[in-house]
Amino acid sequence: MLPNPVRADLPTAAPPPAQPAAARPGRRRPAAVLALLAAVPVPLVAFGAAVPAGAAAPQHRIVGGGTASTADHPWVVGLASRQQFGSGRSGQFCGGALVTPTKVVTAAHCFYDESKGVRVDRPGLKVIVGRDDLRGSAGREVPVKAIWIHPDYAYAANINDVAVVTLAESQGSRPVLDLVGQGETEPYTAGTRAQVYGWGDISGRSEYSPVLRAADVPIVADQTCARDYPGGQDGKFDAKGMVCAGEEKGGKDACQGDSGGPLVVGGRLAGLVSWGTGCAEPAHPGVYTRVGAVADAVRSVL
């Protein structure tokens, strides 16, 4: 059986000062390019170039988008572990969306070791709220009280890739993002415009920035995505729990560093950055967790 493609959207751990920082976990890539990942700082704990502690960590952002602001999108947050990923980019390794004053929705694989497919802790886990530039100190780094991962999350199949993080401190009146309803289909109509947010790779060629970015992408028809991801090295698309978004000719996509970030349709959370082959490639759109398939389960823990 061919190996699963590998995610490339999470950051790596920052060991003691004299040791190199680990690579960030991330969006999945095909097995054919795994050999290249040793030289690329992908969001995979086990893949990517090591970053010396104290040095600027690799930055990750949206491909083909523009700068965005948490003043305009106050529900966009980052997950961070300075202990594991260093302080160069505030320790950011995943994105997420604030959906209540104390709850953040993100991807389950953000809490997995992608070299082993097992659950891992993120020491000193914080949620970054209100910070556009990860090099600065604006906003807050909020402690985390609990993490819920969908009980039917399947790491190997990328299905039910959703988690809920409970904050130790309420964000009060800060605006939150509502979820689409369970079983809704209209937000996933092919051609519908969606917006994706994150601090990921800007090109898929290790050209990084610490600044929040966003891209406008169309929802891709399920049949098209199933053709683009039939299984094997490129991964298998499952419309029951996934949705694709991206331009047919490529050019706009989520990438390394964007895992768990929100895909927004009509002002509601419709998807979460989950996996994909490469970044912004033709015939390989980004694959997102279909929030309409897990909304009831998520709401049960809000």
Descriptive overview:
The structure is a single chain. The chain is mainly beta and 302 residues long. It has a domain at 179-294: Trypsin-like serine proteases (Thrombin, subunit H). It contains four helices and 20 strands. Strands 15-16-17-20-19-18 form a six-stranded antiparallel β-barrel. Strand 7 (92-100) and strand 8 (103-106) form a beta hairpin. Mean pLDDT is 80; it is low at 1-9, 11-22 and 28-61.
Reported for the largest beta sheet, the result is: 6 strands, antiparallel, barrel
Strand order of the largest sheet: 15-16-17-20-19-18
| Low-pLDDT stretches | 1-9, 11-22, 28-61
Please report the first level of CATH classification, the CATH class of the domain at 179-294: Mainly Beta
**What fraction, in percent, of the residue positions are helical?**
under 10%
User: Terminal Cα separation, in Å?
Assistant: 39 Å
- Under the CATH scheme, the architecture of the domain at 179-294 is Beta Barrel
Rg on CA atoms, Å: 17 Å
Overall shape? globular
CATH superfamily of the domain at 179-294: Trypsin-like serine proteases
**Category from helices, strands and their pairing:** mainly beta
**Tally of individual helices:** 4
Report the order of strands and helices.
EEEHEEEHEEEEEEEEEEHEEEEH
Return the CATH topology of the domain at 179-294: Thrombin, subunit H
The proportion of strand residues reads: 25-35%
Mean pLDDT: 80
Give the arrangement of secondary structure elements.
Elements: E1 6-7, E2 20-21, E3 28-29, H1 34-37, E4 51-52, E5 66-67, E6 76-80, H2 82-85, E7 92-100, E8 103-106, E9 112-113, E10 118-119, E11 126-129, E12 140-149, E13 163-167, E14 178-179, E15 193-198, E16 213-220, H3 222-228, E17 242-245, E18 262-265, E19 268-275, E20 286-290, H4 291-299
Parallel strand pairs: 14-19
Antiparallel strand pairs: 1-3, 2-4, 5-16, 6-7, 6-11, 7-8, 8-13, 9-10, 11-12, 12-13, 15-16, 15-18, 16-17, 17-20, 18-19, 19-20
